[in-house]
Amino acid sequence: MKDKILFLIRKIYRLTDKIAFYPTLLAVLGLIFTYAMIYLEEKGISKYLLETFPALVINNTETARSLLTTFIAGLISIMVFSFSMVMILLNQASSNFSPRLLPGLISNKRHQIILGFYIASILYCTFILVYIEPDGDKYQLPGFAVLFAILFMVNCLAAFIYFIHSISQEIQINNILDKIFNVSKHRMLYLIENEKYKEGDFASSNSWQVYKSKKSGYLQNVSVENIAKIAKAQNVRIDVMVIKGLFVSEENIIFKSEKQLDDDVIDRITEHFDFSKSEVVEDNYVLAFKQITEVAVKAMSPGINDPGTALNAIDYLSQLFSLRIHKNDKSLSYISEVAYVSMATVNFKTLIFQVMAELRTYCKHDVVVVEKLLMMLLHLKNIIKEENKKYQEVLDEEIANLILDAEASISNKRDLNFIKSIV
Q: What is the pTM of this model?
């Protein structure tokens, strides 16, 4: 029962990433507030305020109708204009930077809240307009409710101004890179601070029982702690074979167990594998490396030709790799100092190869970018600690491959000598 509750909570949490979640929530709240105001009007709040604070009540039917009609038309126009502009800017971001950035831009919660506030205000004004009786006198007219419509309209105008400012900042590549970097940085720091790994705490799983996936999609998250609790209860060890963030097909091996498990236990374990059709940086820091690398590659394409953006992207990659070298290549989940679950992760060698392979392919002809890449690799070599000395061999290999590609693409001997002098 507890597992099912946790599963339900995770599913509800995932809904918050959907673009329609906050608009729908605010629209429902707007309807609830509307009916609350209608209830207060039925109890005579406008009549009471007209006698006590007449300045707070609009007591002219035609004025109220004109205001509400104008507000509804104006809010719809503002909403259409705002999100038409969003679509245009998203199209530009996709063309100039990378289509992989779109989910992060679309899921901006502040913009979703503004959209929800627009919709809630439109619904409020519409229902209050319908509530006004054609032959109503000053006591029947919902004047206090109309006052709230005016306040909502003023707030919508303020939200519109903020939206224009926010979207103009959001689409700038420096802000995009900075947001990706900060999210992935916080994720990596969390993993580094909470990871536990001791060599020899987890036996080889080569001969263990294999279990396959019944779903397909990107593995968005794995509740390793909950799987560890199940493993402890069954007195068994689990080796998760799939890497978070990668696409998993049906019939792919997702985990191994050191002994045969019942169908009920298998189902309980697989419930803690969350699949999605999209990728999220908050759950998978490796995606940040992919996104920033794609921005750099796109910037170096002949159609864009923006080496400055590529250099900025490499700076962010350098900072991310500086954090990554402090993380172990394996992750174990412990309960009472016993490792029950091993989680597959993208190791440092594979990660830096994937990044450098793309950058070498598209940036090897540019002397300045090659210099920047060499400086990044040399910086990483200098900050490697004693326990991660194995990473130095990986970096030496990447430096050699980068120089080799540069020699094949750059014909100017002076430029080549300059690059070789850096190493």
A: 0.77
